[in-house]
Amino acid sequence: MATANNNNTLQDLEPTRYLRTPILDVPGGVALGIALLTAAGKDLPAAAKRAAKVLRQAVVALQGDWAAQRTAGLTTEEDKRPADQRLDRVWAAVGARLQTLADLPQTIAEAKQATQLYARLFPDGLAFLRLPYERQWAESEQRLKQLADEEMGAAVEELVGEFVLTELRDAHANYGRVLGITDAKPGAAVAPNLLEGLRVVQQAMTSYALQLIAAAHADAELVASVRRALRPLDDLREAQARRAGARGGDAVTEPAGAGSVVTPTTPVPAMDDA
């Protein structure tokens, strides 16, 4: 049985903390996957090792799709700047509209609602619009997922206008197409949808993290190993939180192994058989 001290050590190893991965683009997903596999210890239980092998397969598959995308020439012909600027403008319009309403007296129901919605959509303001292309798309995708919630989407639509949200969704879809993340360009060779591969990697990361946490709670002697194995996830989450706290300041350097300095051919660590 774990001692009181061990129970204290487990306090921040809660499953809910790892149910969602940090916001990632494709290079970031590959890099974080590689970092997690590199950090995996030799003394992990069989279930965690099996989850690590699934993660490795997902990362390798995403690298293959990424390579196929490059081969198809989906990211070299079209100037990305117009699509980027279009998305920037519409997100800025959403933010400005909510912020303008939020500046009214909070006794007005719409002003109070606008304040709450702005805080949920833009916890770090509009700093994400200055991120590199793929990371900006990932941030935009995350916010559009929030707007897919029927109640929240309806509230934002009422305050900023249906036509603004229509333009937002169109601009985001076009941005993903230009970046080669979602759809191939007309006439281009068929290439995989990188968004789906990235989602598979993120799901595999979550499953792996939950297996690690279950192992730590079952055997206190594994706590140190599990902490080391999860460190790349924790480091990236902390770096993104610091960046958000900077509110438009200099970008925070990502942890080693969790940035975007990878390619479709970066070696992925092999996992021992479980």
Question: What attributes characterize this protein structure?
Answer:
10 helices; globular; 2 domains; single chain; 274 residues; mainly alpha
Q: If you had to describe this structure to a student in words, what would you say it looks like?
A:
- It contains ten helices and no strands.
- It has 274 residues and is mainly alpha-helical.
- The longest helix has 26 residues, at 46-71.
- Residues 1-8, 185-190 and 247-260 have low confidence and may be disordered.
Question: Secondary structure elements and their pairing?
Answer:
Layout: H1 4-9, H2 26-39, H3 46-71, H4 81-102, H5 109-121, H6 133-147, H7 150-160, H8 162-179, H9 194-218, H10 223-246
Helix pairs in contact: 2-3, 2-9, 2-10, 3-9, 4-5, 4-8, 5-7, 6-8, 7-8, 9-10
Percent helix, as a range, is: 55-70%
Distance between the termini: 26 Å
Residue fraction in strands: under 5%
Q: What is the string of SSEs from the N terminus onward?
A: HHHHHHHHHH
Low-confidence stretches: 1-8, 185-190, 247-260
Name the shape in a single word.
Answer: globular
Describe the sheet with the most strands.
none
Into how many domains do the coordinates divide? 2
Looking at the chains present, what oligomeric state does this protein adopt? single chain
In short:
The protein has 2 domains: 4-73 and 190-246, no CATH class; 81-179, no CATH class. Helices cover 64% and strands 0% of the residues.
